[in-house]
Amino acid sequence: MLLFYARMRHALAWLFLLFLAGAACSAQITPKVTVTRWPGDRQAAISLTFDDGMATHLDIAGPILKKHRLNGTFFVTTGSKAWRTRLQDWQRLAAEGHEIGGHTVHHPCLLERITPHAQAYTPEMMEAEIRDGAREIASRIRSRRGLTFAYPCGNMSFGPPAAQPVNQALYLRYVAEHFFAARNYGWSGTVAPDALSVLTAPDLGLTAGRDFAGLLAMAQPALRDGHWGVFSFHGIGGEHLSVSAETFDELAAYLARHPEIWTATFGDVVRHIQESKALGIQTVESGEVRVELALNWPLDPQVFDLPLTLKWELPAGWRACAVEGDGKAIPSKVSGRLVLFDVAPQTNSVRISRK
User: Fold this and answer.
1) 93-135 pLDDT, tens per residue?
2) Model pLDDT for residues 38-50, shown as the tens digit of each residue
3) What pTM, to 2 d.p., does this model score?
4) Which one of 132, 214, 236, 265 is separated from 161 by 20 to 30 angstroms, measured CA to CA?
5) Where are the domains of the chain?
6) Strand residues in the chain grouped as ranges (E)
7) In CATH, what class is 44-259?
8) Is residue 337 left, alpha or beta, with left meaning phi > 0 and alpha meaning psi from -120 to 50?
9) Which fold, 28-38+279-354?
């Protein structure tokens, strides 16, 4: 009997120690902070991009985008007539928030019907196409956020067939030296944020001649899966490989009516994905009334300058909270047990206090 009581006392002592340990742990809040897949925890992302730098981009696409308060990405060939004769209009587009990206100087590619033909190009010639186009855009647009690129005809090589495997590596190197991201053409794919290939992002496929229903069908996989879909357009309401102005207007109106879809420039979506992957979040303090986080933004702040939306789960017993970034109040939105708030780029610390 004495042995039984001794064992009972021993067991109760252990239970008491476990209770104290549990009470101590309950005072420590384990923050569950993540970056939302898309800004504002939106459903999916769509980018509207335009190749070749055409007059219809300035005269038709630009006004339609302005009407619906959307921004697009215009990949321009700097040797084209529309670029050379209408620089002020391209500068105006850039000032309105649109992205001006590179598409080489003279649009060389491997299609036989296209001149100049990329099979005749040496490495020095192709490097000049990419470098000189980038320098022209940077000097005219005066953007310091970095540039993006689109491959003419979707080709990523040049030179005679026997040299093309080796030249593909050179092509990608030239692009990477002057642009922070690049889009392919005609690959018919969507982009999951964790699977982005930054120099070979696919588009949704060929858009020429499609009506609104056809374009919307192209976007459905991205909308369904929470991915990024990139439309590649050429002429709008005229010129080559075009869709009608009415069709494009209908697509823009649809995107404007659906704020759960993040419609953003090609470059900004890449910025968001890369920043989200790179952001470091470390818990500095964790208690019953306050949680403090240290943030690390390792990417070039001149190029990667977008705010990120953080998602935080309220701990048990918390009904509301106040959020500060570097000592300044940050607006937050509570949905059930989840709190959403945007942090500006290069924010060093975030404090979440119980209300």
Assistant:
1) 999 999 999 999 999 999 988 889 999 999 999 999 999 999 9
2) 999 999 999 999 9
3) 0.91
4) 132
5) 28-38+279-354, 44-259
6) 33-35, 44-52, 73-76, 99-102, 148-150, 181-183, 228-233, 261-263, 280-286, 290-296, 308-313, 321-325, 328-330, 332-335, 338-343, 349-354
7) alpha beta
8) alpha
9) Immunoglobulin-like (2.60.40)
